[in-house]
């Protein structure tokens, strides 16, 4: 049994009746969750027969891109108890071939379909300014509006249907390789890293922000300086499952 599987089985045994039967979990990810990370999280959450797990990951997504049917061009992943869709870059005849562009479902469409008890949002990686751009006051406001759009819509849906009971945000790892990122300038309030901003902007009684580990703690990065090796994703998935345990452990 893997370390992660052992952690999750231990959680199931210890939690007893603290998790209701047929608890529906919705996971919303970006390109970090197109392959290894999403597979590991899905495998270990769905190991509990009381959970119904629904994974949606869109390459290039930030929270507000789920407002409409976001037409991605670099990858899409959907895994539910009844469907599996994975459109990603593949190698054919020694050459990389892009996925077929598709319009991912909007947040409202997904909520109406899944009606989740718990939402795990692995987002924020695509909110860093691009190379050559400056982190200004107006850009920080853009980040705030982007994050709070999804938070407000999840809270609005919860008020209408009493679901989701909990919203768990998973931040990007700290201290990322900044060579491909914009320059952070100005007042120290604007120099905060994305995890800091997410903890500030996404607070609430039904919301938990899981501040991810430093990249240095996630083993070697992959060659693009943003995504991780398999070992790194293994460590990150363990962190997410452990965070989930802490939220739903018996008091």
Walk me through the topology.
Blueprint: H1 3-15, E1 23-29, H2 36-45, E2 51-58, E3 71-72, E4 76-79, E5 84-87, E6 90-92, E7 95-97, E8 102-103, H3 107-114, E9 118-122, E10 134-135, H4 137-161, E11 166-170, E12 183-184, H5 194-201, E13 207-210, H6 230-248
Parallel strand pairs: 1-2, 1-9, 9-11, 10-12, 11-13
Antiparallel strand pairs: 2-4, 3-8, 4-5, 6-7
Helix pairs in contact: 1-6, 2-6
What does this structure look like?
The protein is α/β, with parallel strands linked by helices and about 250 residues long. The chain has six helices and 13 strands. A seven-stranded mixed beta sheet has the order 5-4-2-1-9-11-13, covered by helices on one side. Strands 3-8 form a two-stranded antiparallel ribbon. It is globular, with a radius of gyration of 18 Å. About 5% of the residues have low confidence.
Brief descriptors of the model:
alpha/beta; two-stranded antiparallel ribbon; 33% helix; 251 residues
Instruction: Determine the structural class based on helices, strands and strand pairing.
Output: alpha/beta
Proportion in helices: 25-40%
Number of alpha- plus pi-helical segments: 6
Q: State the distance separating the first and last CA atoms.
A: 28 Å
Estimate the strand proportion: 15-25%
Q: Give the radius of gyration.
A: 18 Å
Q: Sheet with the most strands?
A: 7 strands, mixed
Order of helices and strands: HEHEEEEEEEHEEHEEHEH
| Total number of strands | 13
Spatial sequence of strands, sheet with the most strands: 5-4-2-1-9-11-13
Mean pLDDT: 77
Shape: globular
Point out poorly predicted stretches.
175-191
